[in-house]
Write a structure and sequence with these properties.
single chain; alpha+beta; about 180 residues; about 30% helix
Length: about 180
């Protein structure tokens, strides 16, 4: 079963020193850590290490992949494919993303959604950038009022762009769920 995905849009490459800080954060937060390649990590994130105490009775170790993408780090072809239809980001964000970080959960329980959001926010504390979160239509009104929201796009496939503060505030909302 696949779980939610969040993307951090970046205006430039993540410096190697920051990649090392991300790696250290992930090692501290994980019960299992495997570096697949520079900037790509396969993890078993310990929800408790992120301050998440309600795991709904399931194991708090959640399978996650964190992957940096863009020129000179990760798979540039994947980055290009994921951004081919997002040409208006310069207008929305004030920059055109050149790099990104994907945080991908491999399960879809409620705790997986919260872990994905909180871990993404912690990575954003190191990298900066803007979170890119797809929304369900019934989430637009709730998300639009949260702190740290930059913009919510209209239409049949709405997207919220925001800060780490936005992700943390959203994850605290009753019934919080990311769109897959």
């Amino acid at each position: 079963m696949s779980g939610p995905v969040l993307t951090i849009e970046l205006a430039k490459a993540v410096p190697h020193t920051v990649v090392q800080q991300i790696r250290e954060l992930l090692v501290r937060s994980s019960a299992r850590f495997e570096e697949k390649r520079f900037g790509e990590y396969d993890l078993s994130v310990d929800a408790g290490s992120l301050g998440i105490t309600d795991t709904e009775g399931i194991d708090g170790r959640r399978p996650i992949m964190v992957s940096l993408m863009g020129p000179d780090v990760g798979d540039k072809a994947t980055f290009d494919a994921e951004h081919v239809d997002q040409g208006g980001q310069q207008h929305l964000l004030g920059f055109t993303p050149t790099h990104a970080v994907n945080v991908i959960a491999f399960c879809s329980s409620a705790v997986d959604h919260v872990v994905t959001a909180v871990l993404t926010a912690a990575i954003m504390d190191l990298t900066g950038g803007v979170a890119n979160a797809e929304l369900a239509a019934d989430q637009v009104a709730i998300v639009a009022e949260l702190p740290g929201v930059i913009v919510v796009t209209p239409g049949s496939w709405p997207v919220a762009y925001g800060s780490a503060e936005f992700l943390r505030a959203w994850a605290e909302q009753p019934g919080f769920r990311l769109l897959k």
